[in-house]
Amino acid sequence: MKATEEQQQRAKILTEQADRILIKLAVDVSDVPIRDPTKEPWCSQPSIVAGAEDAYDRLTCAEKRTKDRTVWERTKEADGRTADDIMQRLHQLREEIKPFQKG
């Protein structure tokens, strides 16, 4: 079973928002491993699902590496979402999709 179209759309939007937040934070997260969407359990899902998992991992790392907590707390996307909001929504999405993954 695959993620629904709605879940895929949320994954795409949240991944894009996470990328913009990471640019604002200017924290190097290039060493965070990226999932290979051709490997299990990701190959049974659209690649955006693996991308959403990667976005969550990068934000988690960025939060740890942001020395000034006020910088993290003041991140806000144009739609009003902060880095914490995006991480929470990505986490919820991960929990929804987890039962669909093999392995």
Detailed description of the structure:
The chain is an all-alpha fold. It has one domain (5-100). 58% of the residues lie in helices and 0% in strands. The chain contains four helices and no strands. The protein has helices spanning 5-25, 47-65, 69-73, 83-97. α1 runs antiparallel to α4. It starts with a helix and ends in a 6-residue tail after the last helix. 29% of the residues are buried.
Sum this structure up briefly.
This protein has 103 residues and is mostly helical.
Q: Which short descriptors sum up this protein?
A:
103 residues, mainly alpha, globular
| Integer tally of domains | 1
Number of helices: 4
Shape: globular
Helical/strand content category: mainly alpha
Percent of residues in β-strands: under 5%
Low-confidence stretches: none
Q: Mean of residue pLDDT?
A: 86
**What's the helical proportion of residues?**
55-70%
Give, in order, the helices and strands: HHHH
> Distance between termini?
13 Å
Largest sheet: none
Number of strands: 0
Measured on Cα atoms, how large is the radius of gyration?
14 Å
Topology readout:
Blueprint: H1 5-25, H2 47-65, H3 69-73, H4 83-97
Helix pairs in contact: 1-2, 1-4, 2-4
